Amino acid sequence: MAELVQRYLDHILAEHTEVADGALADYIPELAAVDPEGFALSLTMADGYTYESGDAACEFTIQSISKPFTYALALDQIGCAAVDAAIGVEPSGEAFNEISVDSATKMPKNPMINAGAIAAVSLIPASSPDARFALIRDFYSDFVGRRLELDDEVYRSEKATGSRNRAIGYMLQSFGVLDDDPDEVLDVYYRQCSLRVTATDLATMGATLARGGVHPRLGRVTTATVIKRTLSVMVTCGMYDAAGDWVSAVGLPAKSGVGGGIVAVLPGQLGIGVYSPRLDRNGSSVRGVRVCRSLSEQLGLHFLTVRRDSLATLRNVYEPQERVRVYEVHGDLLFSGAEQVVRIVEGECDLFDVAVLDVSRVDDIDEAARSMLAALGTQLRASGRQGFLVDPDAAVIRADNDQGAGRFSGVDDALAAAREWTRDRSL
Ligand code: GLN
Fold first, then answer.
1. Residue span of the structural domain in which 321 resides
2. What is each CA distance from 49 to 52, 151, 215, 238, in whole angstroms?
3. Do 330 and 274 have their domain in common?
4. Ligand 1 pocket residues where CB is under 6 Å
5. Is 324 found in the same domain as 283?
6. Same domain membership, residue 314 and residue 293
7. What pTM was estimated for this model as a whole?
């Protein structure tokens, strides 16, 4: 059975395929050599289940999406106070590669611009640049759940042309922010930016952030305190000088990179990875930004959407009659809750002829969840099964809708209809 969420993602990708605005990054010559049409979207739920659409296996360099992760590693290794003594947390309103520090503190304004990211590299305690890079690579790899590899060409290309970052490195040294040799710190920074990832890797990294530092399958990578701080700077500074617009319109902590990737996080619920290498003037993927915006709007993912019970979902599943299963849903239902219900019902469809979805104890439901549950019924019918809804208040299917035929006001009515349907079918 085709999955509903999968179709949503394919649809959102298709909606943006024609978008050709923006341009490849060319200030790192090797980045201008990629296929501009590459396009991928992945979604990893908190339990690790992953949806992929487009070129999900296509690898690209992580670039600035590395910044929150190195910042997290610095927090993890030396603690918040020591990190705060070197890097601020204020949005800069400047370009990512601005040669600037805070005028009062003489520190980089935040860890999401190059100045702050280079400073963060220098905070990772290690005996040599190689040892420092090894720590960074291992830490990112733990977020992904596989070992990330270096793109040697991109690394050399950036190192050979990195005057801007060299200027930032020496400026930081002059203000006493960098204790180590700036060229050695920059070499590690270029290597971290040149690690190769896929959209699915980013979605998994996002899911690990969403779970407060716990990889969905492999367990804890870092502490919830580290992640709270990391997500905070992603909210305020992750999308550079477009951060305000991003928070209002999309409302997901996120980070973009000039390699064309974006990672976005819905805390507690899911991680998103998008890839499309044509960039806007801020250095963020044009299609990536638009896809995130559509996802957030269509699936109701804004992180400040207030709900009463984020744990709302399937409370009870039982089989009162042979090959009839009742799924009882409680609480407030948004995208992630509906995704879970749909996935479980789809996954168990061999066990029943009739699924009765009891939403009579659902308090509140948003548009995305409503259309997913309504589509589930249609999909079950299309596969020769039956989907009935116990929905006395017409929460999912409006009373005047022609799909109202599958809607009942009590479980007993639905079970009687199920018996009738099964009998008719066997005649
Ligand atoms: N490596 C790139 C740089 O330092 C990263 C920039 C980015 O992705 N915004 O210029």
1. 310-426
2. 10, 28, 12, 25
3. no
4. 63-64, 96-97, 114, 158, 165, 193, 257-258, 283
5. no
6. no
7. 0.89
pLDDT of residue 364: 84
Both 278 and 357 in one domain: the answer is no
Provide the β-strand partners of residue 49.
none
Bridge partners, residue 122, by sequence: none
Which whole number is the average pLDDT over 296-306?
A: 89
Nearest to 234 by CA among 260, 261, 259, 265: 265
Structural domain includes residue 304: no
Closest residue (by CA) to atom 4 of ligand 1?
114
Residue that finishes a domain, picked among 273, 299, 325: 299
Domain boundary among 255, 270, 299: 299
Based on the residue annotation, tell me whether 318 is a catalytic residue of this protein: no
Tens digits of residue pLDDT in 207-228: 999 999 999 999 999 999 999 9
Q: Whole-angstrom Cα distance, residue 371 to residue 356? A: 17
pLDDT tens across 227-286, in order?
999 999 999 998 866 678 889 999 999 999 999 999 999 999 999 999 999 999 999 999
Q: Quick check: is 221 catalytic?
A: no
Domain presence at residue 420: yes
- Asked if residue 402 has pLDDT above 60, the reply is no
Task: Please report whether residue 305 resides in a domain.
Answer: no
Cα 213 to averaged position of ligand 1 atoms, centre (Å) = 24
How does DSSP assign 213-274, residue by residue?
SEETTTEESS-HHHHHHHHHHHHHHTTGGGHHHHHHHT-S-EEE-TTSEEEEEETTTEEEEE
User: Count of domains in the chain?
Assistant: 2
184 marked as binding residue: no
Q: Can 34 be counted among the known catalytic residues?
A: no
According to the model, what pLDDT value does residue 2 have?
47
Does one domain contain both 338 and 284? no
In a domain, 46, yes or no: yes
Domain identity same for 339 and 419: yes
258 labelled binding-site residue: yes
Both 45 and 133 in one domain: the answer is yes
pLDDT digits (tens, 9 = 90+) for 111-133: 999 999 999 999 999 999 999 99
pLDDT at 1: 42
Question: Is 110 labelled as part of a ligand binding site?
Answer: no
Give the nearest ligand 1 atom to 158 CA: 1
Q: Indicate which atom in ligand 1 lies nearest the CA of residue 257.
A: 8
- Residue 154, Cβ neighbours under 10 Å: how many? 25
Residue-level pLDDT at 266: 96
Active-site annotation holds for 190: no
Query: Which atom of ligand 1 is closest in space to residue 240's alpha carbon?
Result: 9
